[in-house]
Amino acid sequence: DAGVTQSPTHLIKTRGQQVTLRCSPKSGHDTVSWYQQALGQGPQFIFQYYEEEERQRGNFPDRFSGHQFPNYSSELNVNALLLGDSALYLCASSRGQGGGTFFGQGTRLTVV
Amino acid sequence: QQQVKQSPQSLIVQKGGISIINCAYENTAFDYFPWYQQFPGKGPALLIAIRPDVSEKKEGRFTISFNKSAKQFSLHIMDSQPGDSATYFCAASMNYGGATNKLIFGTGTLLAVQP
């Protein structure tokens, strides 16, 4: 049973560019959430997708957007990259309330 | 009110000892409290979770103790091993119409188990 998978694992982008990160949820999961984890800090919630719609959103600017596909996979897009966007981006999947939230290995984004 | 406060920031324990990490919250609407283990360069891995209707939950060497009146919960790692050396995060979430809600994370505790 494959867990949550993310691609790519590492990425280097230049300030001002745009980036797309991808995620496939754990088998049987229908809800995908994205988190940003800065070095030495806990993950911060960006947004959550369910039934191809954004259901919840954290305190992140509109430069951060996402999408969920019919097969439940998801993308995170960040436009106009800033140096401060450098972080580990984590995808998490879940189903319902009682089954727990499971994280992928993350995508390390470095903005130079 | 949305914060989860975690302590200590770092912890050194001898092999075979007990590691204890504490968390506190303010929002009484929180009703789900998981703990995650994260190794360098990896994503957080779900260790154990508890809901407020029980005061303790044990899975192997890991135990969560929950004090609803004090709004505190803690992770106990019994017989700590060098392989337990990692960063541990507590988290909390609240009911969202029966669906999975966002997790609010603590600041993390870096645990080092010395051989």
Main beta sheet of chain B: strand number and arrangement? Answer: 6 strands, mixed
Strand content of chain B: over 45%
Overall radius of gyration of chain B? 14 Å
SSE order of chain A = EEEEEEEEEEE
Q: What profile does the largest beta sheet of chain A have?
A: 7 strands, mixed
SSE series of chain B: EEEEEEEEEEE
Q: What is the typical, i.e. mean, pLDDT of chain A?
A: 94
- The quaternary state of the protein chains shown equals heterodimer
Strand content of chain A: over 45%
Structural class of chain A: mainly beta
Total DSSP helices of chain A: 0
Give a short summary of the structure.
The complex is a heterodimer of chains A (112) and B (115). With 112 residues, chain A is mainly beta. Chain A has no helices and 11 strands.
Quick tags:
heterodimer; A: 112 residues; mainly beta; four-stranded antiparallel beta sheet; 11 strands; 0% helix; 51% strand; globular; B: 115 residues; six-stranded mixed beta sheet; five-stranded antiparallel beta sheet
Textual characterization of the structure:
The complex is a heterodimer of chains A (112) and B (115). Chain A has 112 residues and is mainly beta. Helix content of chain A is 0%, strand content 51%. Chain A is built from no helices and eleven strands. In chain A, the strands form two sheets. In chain A, strands 2, 4, 5, 6, 9, 10 and 11 form a seven-stranded mixed β-sheet that branches. Chain B is an all-beta fold and 115 residues long. Chain B contains no helices and eleven strands. Chain B has strands at 4-7, 10-14, 19-25, 30-38, 45-50, 56-59, 62-67, 72-77, 86-94, 104-105, 109-114. In chain B, the strands form two sheets. In chain B, strands 2, 4, 5, 9, 10 and 11 form a six-stranded mixed β-sheet that branches. A five-stranded antiparallel β-sheet of chain B has the order 1-3-8-7-6, with no helix packed on it. In chain B, β4 (30-38) and β5 (45-50) form a beta hairpin. Chain B is globular. Chain B starts with a strand and ends with a strand. Chains A and B meet through β4, β5, β9 and β10 of A and β4, β5 and β10 of B.
